[in-house]
Amino acid sequence: AQSVAQPEDQVNVAEGNPLTVKCTYSVSGNPYLFWYVQYPNRGLQFLLKYITGDNLVKGSYGFEAEFNKSQTSFHLKKPSALVSDSALYFCAVRDGPNAGKSTFGDGTTLTVKP
Amino acid sequence: AAGVIQSPRHLIKEKRETATLKCYPIPRHDTVYWYQQGPGQDPQFLISFYEKMQSDKGSIPDRFSAQQFSDYHSELNMSSLELGDSALYFCASSLNSGATKNIQYFGAGTRLSVL
Fold first, then answer.
1. What CATH number did the domain enclosing B39 receive?
2. Which of A95, A107, B45, B54 could cross-link to A101 by cystine, CB 3.0-4.6 Å?
3. In chain A, what residues touch B102 (CB-CB under 8 Å)?
């Protein structure tokens, strides 16, 4: 079974400050990890993924995430937040390449204040 | 670039009615996924199809059924609608090979309201 936890419902940061949105996961095999962003009344948009390779993954809009196997974490980060980054962020996991579904976390609302 | 198309965007039904949601994947994508997202909740996986065959099944109620057609579009059929079925229904598609393998691309969703 696969599961994802996003421990924070809300993250508030000031514009220009670094941001971190936390995610931990549990899978029986090799984790395939994803971050998606959802703007109001919009579909989920892919940000970045980790399959294999470098633990630091760079994605869209200046976001990056670090895969930490020992801590089973995949936290989303950005060095300098923008007001336009305010949205709902979902972490997702798949248990290897043949899993038919992604399991999503509960989502974290990021609010970036000017 | 073409994206995942879902229709209709909004749908209002009454209890015990039926509804059909349609999803047109990105061209050449071979896998389609359906998710249900209730208000303030994360997306819950319902069902997926790969090459027109059901590939995985999640928390899809027995009242719902889905299929993928020869042109790879998919339809989610919902019968005996209940108030609790009111949600945003997302379709996603992916290509089971290449650099974008395992990345799901989502449509804008169909917002179903059951009155």
1. 2.60.40.10
2. B45
3. 32, 49, 51, 94, 97
Range of the domain at A14: 3-113
**Residue A49 belongs to domain with CATH number:** 2.60.40.10
Sign of CA dihedral B78, B46, B25, A98: negative
What's the number of CA atoms in the CB half-sphere (13 Å) around residue B98? Answer: 8
* Residue B105 structural domain: 5-114
- The DSSP result for B76-109, as a single string, is EEE-S--GGG-EEEEEEEE-SSSTTTT--EE---
In terms of Cβ atoms closer than 10 Å to its own Cβ (0-12, 13-18, 19+), residue B59 is exposed
Residue of B nearest to A105 (CA): B42
Question: How much is the CA Rg of chain B, to the nearest whole Å?
Answer: 13
- Phi, psi (degrees; rounded to nearest 5) at B87: -175, 175
Tokens of A9: 């419902």
CA of residue B88 relative to chain centroid, distance: 10
Residues of A in contact with B92 (CB under 8 A): 44
Q: What is the mean pLDDT of chain A?
A: 90
The Cα of B80 is separated from the nearest Cα of chain A by a number of Å equal to 26
Structural domain tally of chain B?
1
Give CA–CA dist A89/A18, Å, rounded. 16
